[in-house]
Amino acid sequence: xxxxxxxxxxxxxxxxxxxxxxxxxxxxxxxxxxxxxxxxxxxxxxxxxxxxxxxxxxxxxxxxxxxxxxxxxxxxxxxxxxxxxxxxxxxxxxxxxxxxxxxxxxxxxxxxxxxxxxxxxxxxxxxxxxxxxxxxxxxxxxxxxxxxxxxxxxxxxxxxxxxxxxxxxxxxxxxxxxxxxxxxxxxxxxxxxxxxxxxxxxxxxxxxxxxxxxxxxxxxxxxxxxxxxxxxxxxxxxxxxxxxxxxxxxxxxxxxxxxxxxxxxxxxxxxxxxxxxxxxxxxxxxxxxxxxxxxxxxxxxxxxxxxxxxxxxxxxxxxxxxxxxxxxxxxxxxxxxxxxxxxxxxxxxxxxxxxxxxxxxxxxxxxxxxxxxxxxxxxxxxxxxxxxxxxxxxxxxxxxxxxxxxxxxxxxxxxxxxxxxxxxxxxxxxxxxxxxxxxxxxxxxxxxxxxxxxxxxxxxxxxxxxxxxxxxxxxxxxxxxxxxxxxxxxxxxxxxxxxxxxxxxxxxxxxxxxxxxxxxxxxxxxxxxxxxxxxxxxxxxxxxxxxxxxxxxxxxxxxxxxxxxxxxxxxxxxxxxxxxxxxxx
Length: 585
Prior knowledge:
Elements: H1 3-16, E1 20-21, H2 46-49, E2 59-67, E3 83-92, H3 97-111, E4 119-124, H4 134-143, E5 150-153, H5 155-158, E6 159-161, E7 166-177, E8 196-209, E9 215-228, H6 229-236, H7 249-258, H8 264-282, H9 291-309, H10 317-328, H11 334-337, H12 339-373, E10 378-379, H13 381-391, H14 395-404, E11 408-409, H15 411-433, H16 442-462, E12 468-473, E13 478-483, H17 490-505, E14 510-516, H18 517-522, E15 536-542, E16 546-549, E17 563-573, E18 576-584
Parallel strand pairs: 1-2, 4-5, 10-11
Antiparallel strand pairs: 2-3, 3-9, 4-7, 6-7, 7-8, 8-9, 12-13, 13-18, 14-15, 15-16, 17-18
Helix pairs in contact: 3-4, 8-9, 8-12, 9-12, 10-12, 12-13, 13-15, 16-17
C-alpha cells in the first residue's frame, strides 16, 4: 500500500460515516497571525471549532499540507521532516469520544489491517483542571484493546492546545509497536527509544484555556484528529524511515547515482528540502530575507550546500526537480501545473547562492591570513559561525579548506554559538505560534474585515492584477501582501486610504451567504486560493462594495471600525508588495 492509497482509504472511510471531504488549505495561512505556515490540520478550522457554522456541515474529513520550521536543522536524521501531510477527521459539535474512538479502531484494524496486538493507546490521567479520562479507557476496552495496552499520562503527553490560549482538551493517542526490544523495564509509549511510534491522535476539545491560565468549558464539544501520512506509510511498509518509501526513494536512488562522495544524511536533506521547497513555491512563497521567504531561501541554500558536499554537479538540480514532479504528481497535481515556476525559482536561488559562496570563500581566505599572522593554529569559532550563518558555509567545508592551509577550526566555540542560534530560532517559532490560532477578538475581526476593504480598494486604484498574496493580522495592525510590479506611489496610497475610510464611514452592513463555488463566481465573488474550497463556500459581502469567498469572521457593520491608516508600503518579494496599516479609534 502506497501513501496515496492510505490517503484515499482514509477519506472514503470517513465519507462512509457521513463526513464531507474538504480540500487541503494552502501552506500559507490566510488571516492568521500566529504562524508563518499551516502547521497542523486544525489551524484552518479554528473559527468552526469555536462555534462558527462550517458550510459543509458538522462532520468533515481532509488531508492537510503542513510545514514546520522548528526542526529544520534536524532534517537529515531518520525521522524529521519540514513538509508533511496530516490526515484528519473532525466533529464540529457532533459526535464525541465514543464514535471517534470506535471509528479510529475500525480504520486501523479493518482498513489498514493492523493487528490489535500492535496497537497501544494512551489517555489523560487527570489533574486539578480536568478529570481522568476514564471514558476513553472504557471505550478502548469495549472495542478490543487489552487493559495492559492502555496507559495514562499527564498534560505533557495527553493534552493538546495550540499555543498558550485557546480551545483544548484531553487526547487519546494511538501507538504502533514496531517489535523492537524494549529499552528497559519501564519502556512504554511515552518512551523515545523507537519501540512505540505514535500514529494517530484524537483530541477531545471541551475546554478553552484563558490568558490567565484558567480553563472553562466550551459551548461546543469537538473532535480534532491527526494521523501523519508519511509515518503510517513507513510503518505499514515495514520501512525504517520515510526516505525508504515511494515518496522519497526514487530521489534517494538518483542521488546515489549522481554522487561522488557518499553521505546518507546529505541525501536525506536534499530529498526533503527539495520536496518542501517545491510545495512552498506552489503555494506562492518566493525566496526573500524575511518570514516565509527566508525559510524557503534557507531550505534551497541548505539543499545546494549538500549537493556540493556530495560533489553532485549543480546542473543536475533541474533533472532532480523534474523527477520529483513525476514522483509526487499523483498526490500533488499542483506540482505539474507549477513545474516551470518551481524550476525557475529554485535555479535562480541556487545561482544567487553560488555567488554568496564565492563571497564566503573570500572571507574565509581573509580569516586564514589573519589566523596565521596571529601565529594561531585554529580559526576562531565566531568566524566559523559567521561563515555558516551569513554565507551558508557549513563548518565541515570551512574545516576542509582550513586543513588545506594547515589550520584547524574551533568547533567547540562554533557549537556553542550554533546552539544559541537554534534556541533563538525555536523561541521565535514558538512566539509565532503563541496565542494566535484562536485569537479572534473584536480587534482582529475588525482588521480581518479591513483586509477585504483594502483588497478591493487596491484593485480600484491599481488594477485587477492587485490580488491578495497573503495577510497577517494582530490586535495592533494588519499586514497585507498583494501582486503589483512596482512601488505604490504616495498619491495611490492616499487614494486607497480614502476609499477604505469612505466605506467604513458609510456604515456598510456585512452579510454572509452559503453557496456553491460556481454560484459564488457567477455572483461576482472574488476568491483567494480557490483550490482550497469545498462544494459549498461562505461569501461575505460588505454592502455593495466588496464580495469575497472567505471563512470569516467579520464585523456586522463597518461603522465602528475607526479610521484606516496606511503606515508602510514596501516590497515583500519579486512582484509582490506589502502594506502595513492600522485602525485608529
